[in-house]
Amino acid sequence: MSGLDRASKNRLTMWLRSEKAFGLTRLPSPVVSESMAAAFVVASAPPPPVVKPVVFSPRVASPSPVMKVEQNSPVARRENKPGPPPLLILPPSAAPFTAPLLSRDDKIARLAAMDSQEVKVCTKCRLHATRTNTVFGEGDPDAAIFFLGEGPGETEDLSGRPFVGKAGQLLDKMIVGMGLTREQVYIANIVKCRPPQNRVPGADEAATCTPYLERQLEIVRPRVIVTLGLSATAYMLKSKVPMGKLRGNWQTWRGIKLMPTFHPAFLLRQFTLENREAVWSDLKLVLSELGMPVPKRAVS
Ligand code: SF4
Q: Is the CB of 119 under 6 A from ligand 1?
């Protein structure tokens, strides 16, 4: 070390410390051999300038931009360097659920655990930054009917419960019109956090969040899913067909029958007799499919 100037000594000390930081349990003795010090000076010295030889050659076509990378060359080492792990979002499955049905108590326990341990603390997509509460979903874990909306609105975000605003009140009326109560069905959304300004959830947000929904559906295992509105329907069916053509026609999602119908918020905006009759017609199909009595109900 004695033959080194102050700058080289400092660089050597920093290098030894970084070696320790990378896993060496003990710093080597500060007494460094002259050969090691000399090697360090050589290794840390700036590389000599590369002088390109001037080669005269006949004009040829320029080489392909796709160059063969030599094994173990600096380029190859850089290309093979492990980068950040790829974002792993598995494509949604189309196969029916095959796991055995759970007991009611098991369903309650699993849904509660998913909500408290995963969804409430979830930061997997950007929607977590603007939410007040997550909105997991609620209802009978043994429900035959699973109503599915697109995402929480302002009232839902503030309360942490699905469909409790004006559209939710209309959904409650629709459920009562079916001869049921809100506690007898299950209600949830595609995304568990409110999109700002109630915008439609982005495809990446929906793709990130729907594994929760799929697990909810696998646990509850309803006999019918009723998708409310185009967003929820299009996401579940991976379809671009307009809502007017989809609604009222049975579809299947992972072996579960799926009935698309209008969103209650759409009904509130376009409260026409025609739209109300269309929704009532869809809900009657659901009741018939489940063998439930269809109340004689005047569309109001
Ligand atoms: Fe997590 Fe879903 Fe909320 Fe995104 S929307 S932060 S994925 S719970």
A: yes
Tally the domains of the chain: 2
Q: What is the residue with the minimal CA distance to atom 7 of ligand 1?
A: 209
Task: Give distance in angstroms: CA of 265 to centre of ligand 1.
Answer: 22
Asked if residue 73 belongs to a domain, the reply is: no
Q: Two tokens at 122?
A: 């979830």
Best residue for ligand 1 mutational test, from 122, 123, 132, 194 (most atoms within 8 Å of Cβ): 122
**Per the domain annotation, does 285 fall within a domain?**
yes
Q: Which domain holds residue 15?
A: 1-43
Shortest-distance Cα residue to atom 4 of ligand 1: 125
Four-point Cα dihedral 29, 35, 36, 40, nearest 10: 140
Residues 236 and 253: their CA atoms lie apart, in Å, by 7
- Identify whether residues 115 and 23 lie together within a single domain: no
The verdict on 39 and 144 lying in the same domain is no
The CB of 210 under 6 Å from ligand 1? The reply is no
Residues 127 and 266 in one domain: yes
Closest approach atom of ligand 1 to CA 191? 5
Please name the residue whose Cα sits nearest to atom 3 of ligand 1: 193
Q: What is the pLDDT of residues 192-251, one digit of tens each?
A: 999 999 999 999 999 999 999 999 999 999 999 999 999 999 999 999 899 999 999 999
Q: Give per-residue pLDDT as tens, 133-158.
A: 999 999 999 999 999 999 999 999 99
**Would residue 256 count as lying in a domain?**
yes
In a domain, residue 62? The reply is no
Tell me the two tokens of residue 167. 């559209």
- Burial level of 258, CB count in 10 A (0-12/13-18/19+)? buried
- My answer on whether 273 and 151 are in the same domain is yes
